[in-house]
Design goal:
Layout (H helix, E strand, L loop, with lengths): L8 H14 L3 H6 L1 E9 L4 E4 L1 H12 L8 E9 L3 E11 L17 E13 L2 E9 L1 H7 L14 H7 L7 H6 L8
Parallel strand pairs: 1-6
Antiparallel strand pairs: 1-2, 3-4, 4-5, 5-6
């Protein structure tokens, strides 16, 4: 009996991300996926289901809409039997329209850092689906499209707190508490 070799899911995910972000190659991106994949960017409901729809999404709304300075800062990675969770800081300058993340929002020219989590499911050695999460309120605050003054939201501080656990917590609580209700 021959032993089944399990695919290196992390290496497959890195190959997929390189095709998207480094090579800007939709064909190479789709080659890392099953025949009927789906992608869901949770905050904006963008992505696609099925090879044809997802290829069109990547071609027309994602790969072609990535800012030139986009980068990710790894935070944590968890690899399971058939899925991974990749937590990162997604950084970019909003220098042109980004349909997948900010549909219909013209470029602001502002620099952004937001925590982002990708939950990726595999079937064998191919990606079956991606669920991508980020804090849309933090993104909108950083672009000046949402005023945090009277809302429990933060801007770039969310990414800074993910990178530095010693950064002050509870600042949004402190806004709501009187000076006698000191919170650390």
């Amino acid at each position: 009996m021959t032993e089944q070799i399990k695919p290196d899911l992390w290496a497959l995910w890195q190959q997929h991300c390189a095709a998207e972000f480094d090579q800007h190659d939709v064909t190479a991106t789709m080659a890392t996926m099953v025949e009927e994949p789906y992608v869901n960017h949770i905050p904006t409901l963008t992505g696609g289901t099925g090879k044809s729809a997802l290829t069109a999404f990547y071609r027309d709304h994602f790969v072609s809409k990535l800012p030139s300075d986009v980068k990710t800062i790894p935070i944590s990675q968890t690899v399971g039997e058939s899925s991974i969770v990749d937590e990162m800081i997604f950084c970019f300058t909003h220098d042109h329209e980004m349909d997948f993340m900010l549909p219909g929002v013209p470029p602001t020219g502002k620099y952004v850092e937001i925590p982002l989590v990708a939950i990726v499911r595999f079937e064998g050695d191919k990606i079956a689906h991606e669920h991508i999460y980020w804090d849309q309120a933090s993104l909108l605050v950083q672009l000046g499209l949402l005023d945090p003054a009277n809302l429990p939201v933060a801007g770039i501080e969310t990414a800074q707190k993910v990178r530095d656990k010693h950064r002050t917590s509870n600042t949004l609580l402190a806004k709501q508490c009187s000076s006698s209700d000191h919170i650390e």
